[in-house]
Amino acid sequence: MTNTKHLHITQLYPRDMNIYGDWGNTLSLSRRAQAHGFTTEIVDYNPGDPFPTETDIILGGGGQDSGQTIIQEDLHHIGPTLNTMAQDGTPMLVICGLYQLFGNEFVTIGGETLPGIGIFNARTVGGAERLIGNIVEESPEFGTIVGYENHSGLTTLGEGTQPLATVTSGEGNNLEENHEGARVHNVIGTYLHGSLLPKNPAISDYLIRTAAEKKYGSFTPASIDDSLVEKARAVAMSRPR
Ligand code: GLN
């Protein structure tokens, strides 16, 4: 290990947006960064808090429509900061409910429009059916990604926003297209809970590498034993939907 450097991880809205173990992403990312030789600090950001002055990586979880309504107004307060950081290359990972609100808007099944902060050129409309179950997808950069989806929102991507992966088992962004998630700058949005990062360390490594290169100009990865991860991935992929 050659890095003796520090990474600040900001976790958005853990009080209201944290279902299906999304908090596990934060723990997993922090441990992974430590395994690569970094010291880490996790800061929780909840509505009304001062936005942390130092942030190297941003994570955000999913939530019910009600959770999304609670954090909406605050998200718009910090939206310009998040947009600037995204354009500046700060790595971010947002899951499900926050993925939807990082788009242009989310129209709920009840017909309420929750405006998003427009980091992704994407629009989500609540559907009558819930898309629930284990999901496997292929990404050119991250290989096979495995997780669990549970959403009724159907997301359509617009110009300039790329999907994260092609779905091989499950539904993904919507019922018509076989892609899932979104990417723009160094921001990843996805419907995958599970938690995502413990089973997909390639995504953790991407977030850590991007943050380290931005902050320190370079990243020297440690060699990490992923044999337990491989077992967990194999079990997850063998499960029926
Ligand atoms: N409420 C949103 C939906 O069902 C998000 C759900 C979630 O974050 N799991 O589409």
Tell me what you see in this structure:
With 241 residues, this protein is α/β, with parallel strands linked by helices. The chain has a single domain (6-238), classed as Rossmann fold. It is 31% helix and 31% strand. It contains six helices and twelve strands. It has helices spanning 23-35, 65-87, 96-101, 196-199, 201-216, 227-238, and strands at 6-12, 39-45, 57-60, 92-95, 105-107, 113-115, 122-139, 143-157, 165-169, 179-180, 182-184, 187-190. The chain has a six-stranded mixed sheet with strand order 2-1-3-4-12-11. The radius of gyration is 17 Å and the shape is globular. The structure holds glutamine.
Taking the sheet with the most strands, its summary is: 6 strands, mixed
- How does the overall form come out from the CA principal axes? globular
CATH fold group: Rossmann fold
The portion of residues assigned to helices is 25-40%
Q: What is the overall pLDDT average?
A: 95
Distance between the termini: 39 Å
Number of domains: 1
Please give the CATH architecture.
3-Layer(aba) Sandwich
Give the topology string: H per helix, E per strand.
Answer: EHEEHEHEEEEEEEEHHH
Proportion of strand residues: 25-35%
Adjacency order of strands in the biggest sheet = 2-1-3-4-12-11
Tell me the structural class.
alpha/beta
Number of helices: 6
Radius of gyration: 17 Å
Number of strands: 12
Poorly predicted runs are: none
Query: Could you tell me which ligands this complex binds, including any ions or cofactors?
Result: glutamine
> What is the assigned CATH homologous superfamily?
Class I glutamine amidotransferase (GATase) domain
- Indicate the CATH class: Alpha Beta
